[in-house]
Structures are given as structure tokens and as C-alpha cells.
Amino acid sequence: MRLESKNVLVLGAYGFIGAAVARSLQAEGAHVAAFVRNVKTGMQVLPGVTQVQGDLRFCLQPEDWVAHLEHVDCVVNCAGALQDGPSDDLEAVHHTAVAALGQACARQRIAVVQISAIGADPDADTDFMRTKAAGDAALRACDVPLWIFKPGLVIGQSDYGGTALLRMLAAVPLVQPIAYPQTPVQCVGMPDLCRAVIAAVADEIPQGTYDLVEDTPAPLSDVLAETRRWMGFTPARITARMPAAIAGLITGGADALGHLGWRSPLRSNAMTLMSDGVIGDPEPYRAATCQSLARLPRIYAGLACSHEHRLTARMSLLMPLVVAVLSLFWLLSGLFGLIGLPKATSVLTGAGWSTGMAVASVLLWSILDIALGLAILWRPWAARACLAQVAVALFYLLAASFTVPGLWLDPLGPLIKTLPAMTLSLVAWPLLQSR
Fold first, then answer.
1. Is 37 in contact with 14 (CB distance < 8 Å)?
2. Are strands 184-185 and 218-219 parallel, antiparallel or unpaired?
């Protein structure tokens, strides 16, 4: 075991890269501690790994890191966010917290492995890249033992961000939509990325900055076609190149949803990065290790694609539609109740209710329906909103069965139509789990 004596703190440990890195370090014998926002989620993703609760947005001074760095030999920073949002602050996460971490590590001569990004530059087009570059520069200024890795498009067994977008697009039947087919892309397999981190933690490669990319770039259309083959989907019969204007509209919509907490891979930062290409220099890492990183066909050959991967890709493609339909169903249900208040109350008064009670009941449940339709649009509440929808719909069915059982025989089927709505909420609930 190469790392038996090493105590390693992994930041962003239940993320796409962080989870793979933490598992790989542990497999090599390191004592791994996972620095996570949510300990419950951390325990689900990394059972058996020590969990350290923390939030980079609030670790902005060197003193904030002192307690977290006790007995730590190396920190691996896999934390990151694509774009500012309700739970993400790029400047804090990528720069301020990293600068404070570097200063704290310098005082104790703790090594740092920084997972940065291809294209991280102070003059980059996106705040994602600019803040990443600022964090890299801050670490270099701290004079700590430092390795900075800039991976290309990371391909792993699980999916997130760019990988999730590739699989979702590959799942489109018959037609292959693509916005920037000729954009050059260099990939890196998650196993190669993890091996690079392990080598750095073991101090087996010189300190420095390395691009982790395959030797030769490929157009995005080829990367997408290779992804489609790996997933076992039928080759597309038609390739539909998306005009820039349409891509802009989609990106604008994704950014708007970002303010509601939805971390779509179609947001403007991701699309700008994709339009610019993902290109790095493989030579420094090749010179340091005397080996090239695996090319995309070999990366995929080393990964198993199963039914779960295909199902996840298809359901990711359908999830926006599912959420939109559920939101519309509950909003319209409430609005129609308010608009048709006299007719709705007459059903209850015909069953023996007083007019006051009937009006109050229709108003109450109509407002609740509207609230549930809006709640599912706010990402932090979406999964719980689905369960609330099921509970309310079940209550409607039971209450109506006792008070106005004749509704079961209504030609328009108001109660029968509630059953598929309940089922759709139950289908949406697991799709909306964050990890």
C-alpha cells in the first residue's frame, strides 16, 4: 500500500471527482477524511470514510482551517461549482477559501493537490475559469508543496456536469442534437486522474502544474458518437446542429432556472466552455511520468455500461419535462378551483356541506395546489414537494370517496386522473435526489 502513512483531507469529497479520488486514495492505504457540506450525503456516497462537516463558503480565513488540518499530511481540493447560484459562490469556493487554505497549509508545511481546470486563466471568458485561476495563483503564492492538475473532459463510471450532458444527449432517440460539433475536446479517464492524484500525494512526481488530457483532441461530434456507442444506443439517423440563437435561448433558460437552484449542465458557463473547446498540453505530464493518458476509446473500454447508466441518461433527458408537467398540473388544478369556485362549492353543498365550509375548503385546497405547483420549481424543495403532492392527492381521493363518491363515476374522471398524477410524482421523487 503506497500511502499507508498518509492522512489526506479531500475537499468536495462527495462530488463527481472527489468521490472517485477519495475511494482511490483509501484503496492505496491512505487515511482519508471527507470534507463535506452535508454529512448525511457524505455517508451515503462514501460509507466507511471519516466525514468532516464544513463549507468552503465560510472557511475564508486561515484560522477557519486550523481545526480541519490537525494531523493532516496532504489536502486534495476537488471542490468546485460551475456557476453562482443560491448554494454556490464561485469567488468564495474557488478563490478566497483556497487562498486561506494555502496560507494555513503553508504554516504547517501541509502539501496541497489542487484540481483546477483546462483554460483557467485570469483573462478567461467565464467567472468559473477566472476564479479557478485566482485560486491557483493564490496557492502558488503560499509556497506550499503543490501540484495543480487541470483535467480535460473527465469521463468516469458515474456522471456529472459535462459527462452527464454527453450521456443525456446520447440518449436522444434517432436524432443527435449538438450545438458545437467541431469544437476540439481532449478527455481524461477518471482512473488516470486518480492515479495522478495518488502519485502527487505519494510525492512520486515533481511539483508543478499539469494538464491531464489525452494526446490528441477530437471534435465534440466524435466524442458524442463514442459515448453513444459505449452506452449501447442505436446510432443517430440524423444529426441536428443547433443554431447559436437556439443554443442561446436554452442557455438563458438554464441560467434562469439556476436562480431557482437547478444546476443544469446547459448553463452559460458550461456552454461557453464547450464552445471554446477543451484543449490542453499533455507533454509536461507525459515527461514527468513517461506515459500518455488513455484515449477516449480506451477510457470507455475500461468502463462498464449497464442498464442503470442508460436508464439514468434517459430519465435525465425526461426530468425537465416531468417537473414541468407536475408543476403545470398542480398550478392549473389550483387556478381552475379558484376560477370555478361556484361550481366547485356546489359539489360540496350538494353533499350536505354549508356554503361557508364549502367555499373555505375550495379556497384552502386551491391555494395549496398552487403552492405545490410552485414548490417543485424551487430545487431545494423539489423532492419533498413530490412527496407532498402524493400525500395531498391521496387525501383528496380518500376525502372525496367518503363525501362525494359519485365523482368516481363523473364522465370527466377528476378522481381517476389523480392516480397518474400521483404516480408521476412518485417517479419524479427519486430522480430529484441530489446524489
1. no
2. antiparallel
pTM above 0.85, yes or no: yes
Please state the domain extents for the chain.
7-305, 319-431
**Any idea what the Cα angle at residue 185 is, between residues 180 and 191, rounded to 5°?**
135
Buried b / exposed e over 361-400, threshold 16 CB at 10 Å, is: bbbebbebbbebbebbbebebbbebbebbbebbeebbeeb
Question: Of 363, 368, 361, 367, which Cα lies nearest the Cα of 403?
Answer: 361
What is the full per-residue pLDDT of the chain (435 aa) written as tens digits? 678 889 999 999 999 999 999 999 999 999 999 999 999 999 999 998 999 999 999 999 999 999 999 999 999 999 988 787 777 889 999 999 999 999 999 999 999 999 999 989 998 888 889 999 999 999 999 989 999 999 999 999 887 777 888 898 899 998 898 888 899 999 999 999 999 999 999 999 999 999 999 999 999 999 999 999 999 999 888 888 888 788 888 888 888 888 888 877 777 777 777 777 889 999 999 999 999 999 999 999 999 999 989 998 999 889 999 999 999 999 999 999 899 898 888 878 887 888 999 899 889 999 999 999 999 999 999 999 999 999 999 998 888 888 877 777 766 667 788 899 999 999 999 988 866
* Among 175, 262, 281, residue whose Cα is nearest residue 224: 175
Task: Give the distance between the most distant pair of CA atoms in the chain.
Answer: 85
Which grid cell sits at 275? 464552445
Distance CA 138, CA 118 (A): 17
> How many helical (H) and strand (E) elements, i.e. helices and strands, does the chain have?
17, 13
**DSSP code per residue over 226-237:** HHHHHHTPPPPS
For 82, phi then psi, to 5°, come to -75, -35
* Topology given in CATH for the domain delimited by 7-305: Rossmann fold (3.40.50)
Q: Which residue is listed with cell 489536502?
A: 75
Encoded amino acid at 261, one letter: G
Return d(Cα 152, Cα 185) in angstroms, integer: 8
Could you give the CA distance from residue 390 to residue 376 in angstroms, rounded to a whole number? Answer: 12
